[in-house]
Amino acid sequence: MKAKKSVFGVFCLIVAFVGLKVEDHIIDTEPAIREVPTSRKVVALTFDDGPLNTSTPKILQILREKGVKATFFVVGERVEKYPMLVRQEAAEGHEVGNHTYSHPKLRGLNRQEIDKEIEKNETLISQVAPRPTLFRPPEGKYSKTVLEDARERGYIIVLWSIDTKDWRCPPVGDIVDSVLKNVKPGSIILLHDGKYPSPTPEAVDCIIDSLKSRGYEFVTVSELLQYYQPASR
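That's the Polysaccharide deacetylase sequence above. Prediction below.
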């Protein structure tokens, strides 16, 4: 028994050491993270454009009932309006990321305007949740200037590997199918909680049950990064 505990302890130390270097390694190889190479059946649910006092509470309730953690990329204008929802997201173990203050097209802005969008939202989030370390540009579009500004502020840019297009309000089955047909270990799934009425809450319920039945686990994006496995040469 002591030998097993000793081995496990060494393993944990190795994982902790490697984990400290994971983000740096990924950033060095990719300007933005779309998925995380891993053999472990883990995925990250991400929600953009919230919070909204109609859709977000429904999604939070489903996540709570299912025991699932997710990542919410929030918009500052809505953080101002619904700060308690962001506080709730963080309190329930979800990760809160920066999705700019007003959701502009960043590639059309200058450096000062980009910095203001990121900084203003960062300040708002930090009043009700931990300071964000993940940044998702609106529509997933960014320029060299956006990349440089975000990195200088200590952010990791996160996109997605599965776009459910739920913001178009398709049938629930279409949203679920878009995930089930494309999911793989390390997937980052794009959903939205910033629209109402929306098929997203019902779809999330089905997605969680379906992926759990396939042996998948759900983690936040920052947790997903710790499962990174470099390609073997």
